[in-house]
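Supplementary notes for students who missed Thursday's class. We covered one full example, reproduced here. Read the sequence, then the structure, then the short commentary at the end.
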Amino acid sequence: MHRRFLYAIAVGMGLVASGGQTEGDPITKAMDQAKPATVRGASRPEIVGTDVFPRIAMLWSPAAELKGSRTERLAKYGVSVVGVEELGLRWKRAQHADLAEEFEPATIGIARAALAKVLAANRKAIICCEVYFFEAERRSYPADHAWWFRDAKGQKVSFWRGAYNMDVGNESYIEHIATRILAVHVALEGKAGIFLDNLRFDQTAKRGWLSLLKKLRVARPSIVLLVNSGWSSTDLEWIAPLINGILYEDAIAHTRDKDTEAFYQRVAAHWNLLRSPRISVNEKFGARNDKASMLRELARTLAYTDTYFIYTDSTYGHRHSWRAEWDAPLGKAIEPARSPSPGQLARRAFEGGTVAWLPAIAKAPVTIEFDTPHTSASGGSPDRAFRLDPGTGLILLRKL
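Structure (token representation):
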């Protein structure tokens, strides 16, 4: 569940021509309506993603202490999730906002300029714009619309205060959401991805999700899609091949078997099923003063997976502080992600250093040694030997 925090970026005004209608199915028509005439037929630029570590993500709320404009702060992250309006896009005004399937033409140029600034600062940044699918705010559609989900008594079901579940099994609703998603993708020239929240696992929901994703893949094979699985880290094999990333929203704290090492093994397995560029995000909730918790999950993320990472306060805004360890210049991985082994040290080499993690069930501390001095990304003096107690991790940088 998320409260949405949308921020407008004033980057100057620009005007682009809107395209006329074409014959064909509703999705194709919507794409042509959203696409300025100057870019019709243009190839979609590749979204490459970052190849260096640590890979840090942002969900709606950049760290306040980062310097520069909001655009510059977005560029600090490898993957960012924002509202559609964050970049300056505005849907055409309608009595019920989410019925809109086209953008105000003048706002397309504004959004492209804002995105261009982010990419100029970090060409490998991936911005994912959120489009609602599972739920909607109550005024987004007419109160009696057929697209609202209704229970056995015919009542709408509240998801969070002021929002209700949508009927994700309704094919006309799925077509509508596909049209909105593709309008975003075309307006931003394929240079941004899409975020979809609140994956559900009942059979009706699965059919609806598969229908939506297949429509998107047919219309835009290269579209980048990030999906939030919430607390779930199991039963994701059916969706992984159709998307580019999974957001594990504090899932590490909600493993049913309480086996956190197995959680990381599942995350790595899902990664291998995803489409490229792969952009899964491991999110951990925790108190800002709990540095040990943040470092524990960052070390495990780096040792066991190739995913992005973020440590936030909670689901409400996903606010966080920027950590010194996130600036550690590890560079590219020169060894593959390690597979968890009960009680055994996991050690992984990067161009700029080493990450080590010792599971909590290890029987004794372990000392790792180097031929050259290293320093901890958390601070301290250079050394050639470092001790890990069970349940701790280290991010070590080679001293140049």
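Commentary. The domain at 26-133+168-327 is CATH 3.20.20.70 (TIM Barrel). Confidence is low (pLDDT under 50) at residues 1-45. If anything here is unclear, bring it to office hours.
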